[in-house]
Design goal:
The protein is built from 8 helices and no strands. It is an all-alpha fold and 223 residues long. It has one domain (3-201). It comes from Petralouisia muris.
Length: 223
């Protein structure tokens, strides 16, 4: 398969899986991801709807990303804007049909799927290098452009800020929120190294194409 189509497929599949995982978090009801906590908290401050402030905050972040490092805006960003919600609703309907009143064990399993799936999905479209969501771009820019610290630490930092903001705005923080905030960065990096990059570039092969270095050392050019 030509690498261009691999990248498009990875980006699209990553966004669809992200949406499925949002639906899983909603069904598990054990704490949303950090960015959802942040948006929910800010929306509550202004007595507005989540959907309204999601568009406002995402729009502001997209403008900032476009000014600072427009490389991160691409077809995957568009997929993310329009695909995540549809996929989340679809997954929600499936889970509602399968589990009317899930036990705590089932909810924990759904939450685990949401956490691991979100990390895997992010790794796919990070590696595809066709754009990322506005929120994901923040930690990538901090790690790769400004070299503040390794990507996994930048991701933990941005997630932590979102969780603290949500908590300060009286958003309920669950175990899923805490786990995602602490471990999403490192798990994304693991998926990137062991699954996404080997799939795109081939195991044991070096690529001349630019790719993300999630260790926070900037872009790497292999020859």
């Amino acid at each position: 398969m030509p690498q261009k189509w691999k990248r498009i497929g990875m980006a699209l599949f990553g966004v669809i899986v992200t949406g499925f995982c949002v639906g899983a978090f909603q069904k598990a009801d054990l704490g949303a991801d950090p960015f959802t906590c942040f948006v929910t908290g800010v929306a509550g401050l202004f007595h507005s709807k989540y959907s309204v402030f999601y568009l406002v905050i995402t729009g502001m972040l997209l403008i900032a990303v476009f000014v600072v490092e427009r490389h991160y805006i691409g077809i995957a960003t568009v997929f993310n804007l329009f695909g995540v919600g549809v996929a989340a609703d679809f997954m929600g309907r499936i889970l509602d049909a399968w589990f009317l009143e899930p036990s705590m064990a089932v909810r924990a399993g759904i939450m685990a799927f949401g956490i691991l799936g979100t990390c895997f999905a992010a790794s796919l479209y990070f590696t595809a290098d066709l754009g990322v969501s506005a929120y994901d771009a923040v930690s990538l820019i901090a790690a790769n452009k400004y070299k503040i610290m390794a990507f996994k630490l930048c991701r933990i930092a941005t997630d932590f800020v979102c969780v603290i903001t949500g908590f300060a705005c009286h958003v309920t923080i669950g175990v899923g929120t805490v786990i995602t905030a602490l471990f999403m960065g490192p798990v994304i990096q693991w998926f990137n190294t062991h699954l996404s990059e080997p799939f795109l570039y081939g195991r044991g092969k070096k690529s001349r194409m630019r790719k993300y270095n999630l260790a926070g050392e900037g872009y790497s050019f292999s020859v």
